[in-house]
């Protein structure tokens, strides 16, 4: 029923869902571009219309009160942006402990324009040895869906070029707020230094 309802709601608002579904039991789905509060409900509806059971990450502040109960029911995982919580390792452990897990992450980390993406999704994928699925939302064509999957090669610069090429031409509700698809030099240097030693990669920012 939820799948039918989600499909119907999207259709009523004129949105089309690209119906590609990843076959992997464990995978990270990234979503971009992220420029509007509308991105979240549209993504929830799209993934629900595909029949995917998934988990997603949100600010711990939105999980208070009755809404918190609801958000957890639909797969929400609260995180504190200011906490030094070892989030990367927690997510890797979650993938290791489960037979199936689909984790949705917005790598921009914010709706405001930034000159880089957060690298957490890539770190988790490398350490957990799982693929990344390139999810997208394109407001001009009113299309939302899932693109190809990428197995991190640990050549983070090369992999991000592939990611850049896929998202080229896809626009958010507010294109001027789209963050640049690249990493900070210090993060690239860390990966190059730790190449082949992915288990040592850490992050103190749980909103990656």
Largest sheet: 7 strands, mixed
The total count of strands amounts to: 7
Structural class: alpha/beta
Question: Per the principal axes of the C-alpha atoms, what is the gross shape?
Answer: globular
Strand content: 15-25%
Helix content: 25-40%
What is the H/E order? HEEHEHEHEHEEHH
Mean pLDDT: 84
Number of helices: 7
Number of discrete domains: 1
Radius of gyration: 16 Å
**Terminal Cα span:** 33 Å
Low-confidence runs (pLDDT<50, min 5 residues)? Answer: 197-208
For the largest sheet, list the strands in their spatial order: 1-7-6-2-5-3-4
Summarize the structure.
Helix content is 35%, strand content 19%.
Secondary structure layout plus pairing:
Layout: H1 2-12, E1 16-18, E2 26-32, H2 39-49, E3 55-59, H3 65-73, E4 76-79, H4 87-97, E5 101-105, H5 120-128, E6 131-138, E7 143-150, H6 156-167, H7 185-193
Parallel strand pairs: 1-7, 2-5, 2-6, 3-4, 3-5
Antiparallel strand pairs: 6-7
Task: Describe this protein's structure.
This protein has helices at 2-12, 39-49, 65-73, 87-97, 120-128, 156-167, 185-193; strands spanning 16-18, 26-32, 55-59, 76-79, 101-105, 131-138, 143-150. The protein contains seven helices and seven strands, in the order H-E-E-H-E-H-E-H-E-H-E-E-H-H. It has one domain. Mean pLDDT is 84; it is low at 197-208. It is globular. It has 208 residues and is an alpha/beta fold. Strands 1-7-6-2-5-3-4 form a seven-stranded mixed β-sheet, with helices on both faces.
């Amino acid at each position: 029923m939820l799948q039918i309802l989600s499909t119907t709601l999207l259709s009523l608002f004129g949105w089309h869902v690209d119906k590609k579904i990843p076959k992997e039991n464990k995978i990270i789905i990234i979503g971009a571009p992220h420029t509007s509060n509308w991105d979240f409900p549209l993504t929830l509806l799209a993934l629900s219309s595909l029949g995917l059971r998934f988990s997603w990450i949100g600010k711990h502040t939105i999980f208070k009160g009755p809404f918190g109960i609801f958000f957890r029911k639909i797969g929400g995982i609260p995180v504190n942006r200011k906490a030094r919580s070892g989030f990367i390792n927690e997510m890797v452990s979650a993938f290791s402990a489960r037979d199936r897990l689909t984790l949705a992450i917005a790598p921009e980390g914010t709706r405001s324009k930034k000159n880089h993406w957060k690298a957490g999704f890539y770190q988790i994928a490398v350490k957990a040895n799982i693929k990344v699925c390139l999810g997208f939302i394109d407001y001009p064509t009113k299309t939302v869906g899932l693109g190809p999957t990428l197995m991190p090669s640990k050549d983070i610069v090369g992999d991000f070029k592939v990611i850049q090429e896929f998202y080229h031409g896809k626009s958010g509700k507010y294109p001027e707020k789209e963050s640049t698809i690249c990493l900070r030099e210090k993060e690239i240097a860390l990966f190059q230094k730790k190449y082949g030693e992915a288990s040592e990669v850490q992050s103190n920012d749980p909103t990656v």
